[in-house]
Specification:
globular; ATPase_V1-cplx_f_g_su; ion transport
Length: about 120
């Protein structure tokens, strides 16, 4: 099992449509490591759910990745895998895509956090 820290050199990865991935790559998060491969995965209409699951599992096992960004519409496709994922690092963050607005009611992490705390804990 890999150990994680917030040491310099940790990466953000992204799983999303072409526009989302290109946007993050232009922002400087892209890296292609000879040993691990790229830290991004472009999903298109021909990408299978199995390929997305495999990519997520690969990213979640990499010791050099601290955050996995995934567009919510793609996260919905592998919701069964995300619900089983219990680690805090790499953190999984669902983000909106340009084609679909963000729906907080579907966010796996937000749902899990809501179940952990009562309204009293949150001061509501």
């Amino acid at each position: 099992m890999a150990t994680y820290s917030s040491a310099p050199g940790k990466l953000i990865s992204v799983i999303g449509d072409e526009d989302t991935c290109v946007g993050f790559l232009l922002g400087g998060i892209g890296e292609i490591n000879k040993r691990h491969g790229p830290n991004f995965f472009v999903v298109n209409k021909d990408t299978t759910v199995h390929e997305i699951e495999d990519c997520f599992k690969r990213f979640s096992r990499r010791a050099d990745i601290d955050i996995i960004l995934i567009t919510q519409n793609i996260a919905d496709m592998i919701k069964h895998v995300l619900q089983l994922y219990k680690h805090t690092v790499p953190a999984v963050v669902e983000i909106p895509s340009k084609d679909r607005p963000f729906d907080a009611a579907k966010d796996t992490i937000l749902i899990r956090a809501t179940k952990m705390y009562t309204t009293e804990d949150l001061g509501l």
